[in-house]
Amino acid sequence: MEETDREAVATAVQRVAGMLQRPDQLDKVEQYRRREARKKASVEARLKAAIQSQLDGVRTGLSQLHNALNDVKDIQQSLIDVNKDWRQSINTIENLKDVKDAVVQHSQLAAAVENLKNIFSVPEIVRETQDLIERGELLQAHRKLMDLECSRDNLMYEQYRMDSKNTHDMNLIHTYFGDMQKLSEELAKQLWMVVQRSLVTVRRDPTLLVSVVRIIEREEKIDRRMLDRKKQTGFIPPGRPKKWKEKMFNILERTVSTRIEGTQADTRESDKMWLVRHLEIIRKYVLDDLLVAKTLLDQCFPTHYDIFNKLLNMYHQALSTRMQELAAEDLEANEIVSLLTWVLNTYKSTEMMGNSELSPEVDVNSLNPLISQNVVDQLLSKYMSTLTSNIIGWLRKALETDKKDWIKETEPEADQDGYYQTTLPAIVFQMFEQNLQVAAQINEDLKTKVLLLCLQQMNSFLTRYKDEAQLYKEEHLKNRQYPQCYVQYMIAVINNCQTFKESIISLKRKYLKIEMEDTLSSSHTSMDATLDIIAKEGCSSLLDEVFMDLEPHLNELMTKKWLMGSNAVGTICVTVEDYFNDFAKIKKPYKKTMTIEAHRRVVVEYIRAIMLKRISFKNAEERKEGAERMIKEAEQFRFLFKKLAAGSGEDTEGLCDIIEAIAEVIKLTDPSLLYLEVSTLVSKYPDIRDDHIAALLTVRGDASRDMKQTIIETLDQGPSQPNPNYVPIFKEITVPTLTVPKLLK
Q: What does the protein in this record do (predicted)?
């Protein structure tokens, strides 16, 4: 208490200090005192009221406890009285045993009397019921059957109550009502026939289906009543519970399974599209059945049957079983795609379970997969394996077919722009396109895998294509008259390379995600490189063809015959132009490359003819005549290749300038200026070697041994400042085996 008083005083002091913080508040001391007095009085009043309320509650509780004690004493006394009376009545109960037996017997006799009419009329009722079943009047038949069963069950129950161990009488009753069991089975057959055809019956005669459902509901109620009586008495009539509701759902389940399995009308042997047809029939049947179940069947069954969802689950389970059976078969690649497309896409699409008329009862997101992911993965793995083998086979067959075209005696077809081509790129990429479209029907991941597979096999295929093109060239070289259209088909092979490039880019753009492009960059680069090699080798082989025809005319260059007025260069130009009329069917960038290469090779062969030292000019007049002829022929080449390269942007000037520069060295009349002219030539074309200079001076025919040696040695010491744009050409030209020292002798 002292501690409490001290806390109260401390609190009061703190409160007063809070009120009197300023001098002007001293004037309100009396006001503060009255306010606190009022608060104190209010608190005391509430405290008194609370204490009074507690006291009243305690008083009431004590009163109730006193009353309860008195009640307990009264009950205790009553129990004593009851116990006393019970003990006194035991003897009386034993004396009434005979009365009890009489009552039981009376009850049995009363039941027999009550069912006496039915007992005597059992055969007649059985016949009437049989007739009703045969006429299809199932409700009336079931009513009579119920009456018969009720009579039998009551008799058996009374017999059971009287003597449960008396099996003879029980069997006697059961035998007498034996035909009734056959009626029940016959009626059940009729019911199950209607249930099996319920989706048809509900459209033609829904009343019949409703009658069947009412009969099943009656039997369910009787089953429940008999089971309740069994719990109380231990007796249940034979054949109970019938569980007709459970049997009905089992029959529906078997019917659904049979309907799904029975949709396969064809086999692979009779129809390659058997699986597509099978799946389409399933789709149509299931959708139609579920729509009927939702709109019509659902109205014929009680709500608690939840018939639509039950049927939905049955169809889903039956489909799952069927799809697993199909997946376990030895399916071909196209059949695997058809199955997976149907399972993964069609099943939940608007064409089937996602149909707007089935919503909201059918939620496609809540449907379990028809086949497990493991089975899907196995099918996809098998599909990829089969597809790999198929693509390899298709590519090999396509190439073999294309090779047969190469030896035809007719020219290849041309595209809309007039460029020669074969059908190979179109066949290959049409095949790729078809497989990618099929894969895209399943999912994006498979589409990407198929694209990667196609490009991977394309890479290997191009290597074989390159080898076959090389063999084609080698076979032609054995007999240049065969094949007859070698040039045209080699042009088509070159053009195919460009078509392949464009098709690869198009395929990647259409089917490859942007984020996946980096993974294929190296493969794409490899394919481009292989295609460039094929095209380059093809162009080279065509130019070889040209230069084999030019060889006799090239051999005339820088000879006495040439100096006397041979038309070798004119023939060369005509031949090249004639070939390039065919080469006009080569696609651009390869045509441009080929024109440049032809120009370079013509110039190289011309310079090689000079370096072969077939002629050595005897005097200044011959040198002048030969040099002017070289300049004229360089101009012919320049004109020819300018014409051939029209529109390609090729610089046709530089190569022919080399011939003119050499001609200037040969044309020079003052030998003292020969070093300057040669040094100018070397500065322009730094890859020119000493043996080239020695051969050139030999062709001039007027350079002494000392002059040759001086010029070569001086040039070796001089600085070289090559033109960065110059493409070396002299390094390809080999001078005959005479060495420089021998030339100087």
A: Component of the exocyst complex involved in the docking of exocytic vesicles with fusion sites on the plasma membrane.
